[in-house]
Amino acid sequence: MLVIAISAFSIIFNTFLAKKLPLVEALLLLLHVIGIIAIIVPLVVLAPRSSAESVFLEFNNGGEWSSAGVAVMVGLPGAIASMIGYDCAVHMAEEIKDASKTLPQAMMSAVAVNFCLGLAIILTVCFAIGDIKEVLATPTGFPFIQIFFNTTQNYAATNAMTAIVIITLVASTITEVATASRQTWSFARDRGVPFADFLSHVSPGWNIPLNSVIVSLVVTILLSIINIGSTTALNAITSLTVASLMSAYLISIGCVLLKRVRGEPLPSRRWSLGRYGALINAVAMLFLLPIFIFSFFPLVKDVNATTMNWSSVIYVGVISFATVYYFVYGRHHYVPPNALVRRPFKP
Questions:
Q1: Of 343, 342, 339, 337, which is closest to residue 90 (Cα–Cα)?
Q2: What is the DSSP string of 108-154?
Q3: pLDDT tens readout for residues 284-337
Q4: Where are the alpha helices (DSSP H) in 190-209?
């Protein structure tokens, strides 16, 4: 019910308040920065400090894997979620002025700001976490809430700090819905998905892909209902996010790297990695590939039907469906975006 309510709330912003979205995003950015500071300060001032040795040199192999290194790699996809999604802005490119310049600047600025804030908060939490086993066994079900309470020993302060996290996460769904609907619309416009005519329709007077926005809500509701029957199934779908994005990044960067290796010219652009482009692309591939592989691992070595990570099964199923759809229908109707950009202008 909470998922449906939050999704519906996000839909309202992406329909009736679509014109106010830039203002809302600016306010959310302000909340994001101020909120992190409001959380860091109490943790730094009030929390007991762990030693630097325990923070940087102690590793917890809770999944009983063969080594701490394997345990780190298995746990990395969960942490990597904070490093993905910066490409969301790209899916709004057609609604952005001077996108070829503005988008790269926005993405790199977001990476720089969130790297600094993320590093600050993770170091603060590591030094303030206290007894890890006690925090993980919290009756709240959320270790970060227990850390807040252990630090402040006050329910009101804990609720206030938790509210900042919740508001920020809820607000992020507004952007996610906007991104999902625009991506669905653009792919439908290129006739790359079923029901392309319906999904690519832009209602007169709305100036937004209303059908795609509504479909995004319906899909989210259907996915949330899965939790009623099986939490394991829902966890498998949500854990599929990292694997899906990693594979998308690998394909995109791989295509660019292949062109560089072959000496083929890249499309004209106003943002370039320059002479270090090939090196950065290669390093990115080496970084993404192991994360993609380990994103399919379960969290513990000994698994059963409940603790197994079933995302690999869903991933193969989706890829199989997409492949069959492409060869049967898609390759005969799909129009790549570059063909639309280069088509002759007809006044």
A1: 337
A2: HHHHHHHHHHHHHHHHHHHHH---HHHHHT-TTS-HHHHHHHHHH--
A3: 999 999 999 998 988 888 888 888 888 888 899 989 998 998 899 888 888 877
A4: 196-199
CA angle 277, 282, 284 (to 5 degrees): 95
Q: Tell me the CB-side half-sphere exposure of residue 206, using CA atoms within 13 A.
A: 15
DSSP 330: I
pLDDT tens digits for range 86-140: 777 787 777 778 888 888 888 888 888 888 888 999 899 999 888 888 898 899 8
Distance CA 161, CA 124 (A): 14
Which residues are CB-neighbours of 335 under 8 A, at least 6 positions away? 190, 191
**Do residues 85 and 111 lie in contact, with contact meaning Cβ atoms separated by under 8 Å?**
no
Dist CA 61 CA 95 (whole Å):
47
CA angle 185, 186, 188 (to 5 degrees): 65
Lookup: tokens for 224: 């949330």
Q: How far apart are CA 15 and CA 29, in angstroms?
A: 21
- Give the closest residue to 181 by CA, choosing from 14, 26, 333: 14
Tally DSSP H helices, then E strands, for the chain.
15, 0
- Residues sharing a CB contact under 8 Å with residue 132, sequence separation 6 or more, in sequence order: 60
